[in-house]
Write a structure and sequence with these properties.
Blueprint (H helix, E strand, L loop, with lengths): L2 H10 L1 E3 L5 E3 L6 H9 L8 H14 L4 H6 L1 H7 L5 H4 L4 H8 L8 H21 L2 H5 L25 H12 L7 H10 L13 H10 L5
Antiparallel strand pairs: 1-2
Helix pairs in contact: 3-8, 3-11, 10-11
Length: 218
């Protein structure tokens, strides 16, 4: 990033891309991160498998950079049966040992066991709510409930909100693990339950249009 880019990011969280488009600063003009920012982050998702994947990956990201997880995502998909939670829920001790030996993913026993546990909890939640999507989209805030999206101290969106605290609390009550309020909010941002692209980011209005046309699952 050049000095002008640093100054602009410091002032409003926007970084001008190499194509001239203004974007949320965190992509850093890294090609894979930039593509994720433009095509995925904040765009609404209703597919249960994709939602479960994001819940798992956000849990694995805890304490690490999202870019590290993003670059290992295909390895995670291969290791966790494409995040088919019906299959993952049947993983046993041998699978845990297999995953601990897989250098292509994050080899953290607690996070691995949490993903398997959460798969079983996802199966239960689908039986209760009809779909994982129907449950998590209950926590979409009304427009008037949205806080200021830009935290000038961190040059990024807020770390958690009342809705993410409530979602994390509800899932914890149901036995989910490695899914606290900050992880819950990162999940909500990534799957479009909130649109935290900054006002000057070229993606913001495109994402908002997608959200306006999105059929909320019930």
């Amino acid at each position: 990033m050049d000095q002008d880019g640093k100054q602009q990011a410091a002032e409003d969280g926007i970084l001008i891309g190499t194509d001239g488009h203004p974007r949320c600063w965190w992509h850093g003009n890294l090609p894979d991160y930039l593509a994720y920012h433009d095509t995925e982050w904040g765009r609404p998702v209703a597919d249960d498998r994709r939602l479960f994947e994001k819940i798992c990956l956000e849990g694995f990201q805890s304490g690490l950079s999202w870019l590290t997880i993003l670059r290992k995502r295909e390895n995670f998909r291969a290791a966790f049966a494409g995040f088919d939670f019906d299959k993952v829920a049947r993983f046993g001790a041998a699978d845990v040992e297999r995953l601990l030996g897989d250098a292509g993913i994050i080899r953290h026993r607690g996070k691995i066991e949490a993903a398997i546990n959460n798969a079983a909890r996802a199966v239960e939640l689908v039986e209760e709510a009809g779909s994982l999507a129907a449950f998590v989209w209950r926590y979409e805030p009304a427009p008037e409930e949205r806080p200021d999206r830009f935290d000038k101290a961190s040059l990024g969106p807020l770390a958690k909100t009342a809705q993410s605290v409530a979602l994390a609390k509800d899932l914890k009550k149901r036995g989910w693990k490695f899914f606290g309020p900050t992880t819950a909010y990162a999940f909500m941002q990534s799957v479009g339950i909130v649109n935290d692209h900054l006002e000057s980011c070229w993606c913001r209005h495109d994402v908002e249009n997608q959200r306006a046309q999105f059929d909320r699952p019930i």
